[in-house]
Amino acid sequence: xITLEDLRHALPLDTLLYLVDEEGAGVLxxxxxxxxxxxxxxxxxxxxxxxxxxxxxxxxALPEVLRAKALDIAVYRLALRRGxxxxxxxxxxxxxxxxxxxxxxxxxxxxxxxxxxxxSAPAQPKGGAxxxxxxxxxxxxxxxx
Length: 145
Prior knowledge:
mainly alpha; 5 helices
């Protein structure tokens, strides 16, 4: 899971305030923290929806590449509250979101892997299908056909 502390390290304070300070207080208020926490939860939920296709959750460790992608998704979700303006730096946030989702799709499809300890490696498919039952047709029973 990504945290508010991760978000604080990823963004300059003025950028974080721009994204969450709807009251114009100029500081990170409890309301702003709540908005940030909600975006972090939503972003992590989106990340896990892709990871669950290949990995047992929760993950035993959070790889930096995954932390970065999850933060890109959270920042994008916060920016959506203000609106993405064409022709501005907001388009970079949109592209980073798209890149993060593309990476997660690759992970889900097995085209990319996460650097995790061996015990949490992607699940390997179990053997083939097993069929049980009584054989109805045989070479002998169909002999006259």
